């Protein structure tokens, strides 16, 4: 399909799917509260009636389930829309949100915090997500600086990302070897997860994602123009270099915010944009906004599986997305055989 504009019907279906998975994930969980009793609790909160849940059970709904479902939606939306943006900028269907060193920078920063400040409490926002956020942006900044010093261009930027990621990963490994007691905690974070303790993580992620989402949706039409080639885009009054810079900054901001609260969750930025292209069209005015919604749906479903399939234990969220995304990635790679460069 080559549809390049988002139709109201498609948007309504996407939003309806999101509302449906949010409701199901809120009603069902590892704690057996009964979906009908949860519905009665929500209705009681809306109407001022009497809730059938105890104080502890109501806290599970409003302080654990609801913020976790919302956080999963925000992280999934951030990673998916970033993946769509990276694929549009680099014109490469296999590009993902961690391409420019965000994952490596976040991993190094998280490792250093775990080693230097284990068990720090009392912060409004924990030091680990703050460090991961700064590290992700720092990794992207190093990649951008190296790419610019080497002459710029998308190919040079990609190679710079590979070099920066390799260097930061090596430093992280060295730091872990200096303090082997932290290896388990670091790897638990790197496998990805959404172990929220309330609404702090949601409030931390929301403003950054909102800014990035607005910028990327406004740039979606320009990404369609860039797909024609730089010369054609310039003849139409578009500045390719400026557009790429703005899109990469916005996508990196969204990725950093997601990594800060969830660790490293792979394949969302590859799977969701491709599913959107297959179902709704290939234009970025379709792919970018629907990736926001689709990413939220995808990760909420994956998180629901992660926290219920072996309850009361919990699977790492990154394992679920990898089991889903790795075969899909292989299929995408085969489909684009000879066209990926």
TrEMBL record:
Q: Which GO terms describe its molecular function?
A: transmembrane transporter activity
**Principal subcellular localisation of the protein:** membrane
The record's InterPro entries line, in alphabetical order, gives: ABC_BtuC-like, ABC_transptr_permease_BtuC
Membrane topology, as annotated: Multi-pass membrane protein
Q: Which UniProt keywords apply?
A: Cell membrane, Membrane, Transmembrane, Transmembrane helix, Transport
Location of this chain's protein in the cell: Cell membrane
Protein's name according to its UniProt entry: Hemin ABC transporter, permease protein
The record lists the organism as Actinokineospora spheciospongiae
